[in-house]
Amino acid sequence: MDLILHFLLPFFGILLGLLIIHEAAHYFTAKLFGVKVLEAGIGMPPRIWGFRWRDTDYTLNAIPLGAFVRMKGEEDPNEATGETALDSLAAQPKWKRTIIIGSGAAINLVAAILLFAISLMVPQQVSASGAVIGEVIAGSPAEKAGLQEGDQIYKINGRRAESTQ
Question: 165 burial class (0-12, 13-18, 19+ CB within 10 angstroms)?
């Protein structure tokens, strides 16, 4: 049970969050360029629950790994012809299709940089007791000075010693 609570749930939660922002990038760039989004789903079909809003189905699906955005003309380029072709992915110029399809990867790159930057801003563990001598080598200057294993060093040359580094 500890494995599930401490490893698997956070892992799948983070994975789901990354999948959602990846697919949201496709969704918003498609909408920005006027491509009709038929469905935006979390999980993979079959569908468990969903609702329709502004000609898009928003769904929650049975297989919990994955997410997707299904656009008009994405699977069938024949949808790029006729009167309703303007809102089809296949009918868009190559540069727009490239941006729509590439936006997921681009947001993954931005998210990785942002998450690493945030993780580096989190304070690292600093010893509350300061620097502690772990070992004194026989014949070393430390031994000659009378230092012993377990001794604490509070200052070096007038500067506070917070850790062994």
Answer: exposed
> Could you report the per-residue pLDDT of 93-146, keeping only the tens digit for each?
899 999 999 999 999 999 989 988 988 887 776 655 667 787 888 888 888 888
What is the per-residue burial (b if ≥16 Cβ within 10 Å, else e) of 115-130? eeeeeeeeeeeeeeee
The model's pTM: 0.66
Radius of gyration of the chain (CA): 28
Condensed to tens digits (0 to 9), the pLDDT of residues 1-13 reads 676 777 788 888 8
Distance CA(77)–CA(37), nearest Å, equals 15
Residue 6 makes CB contacts below 8 A (sequence gap 6+) with none
Q: What sections of 56-131 are H helices per DSSP?
A: 94-121
23 flagged as catalytic: yes
Contact 90, 80 (CB under 8 A): yes
Q: Which of 23, 135, 149, 162 is catalytic?
A: 23
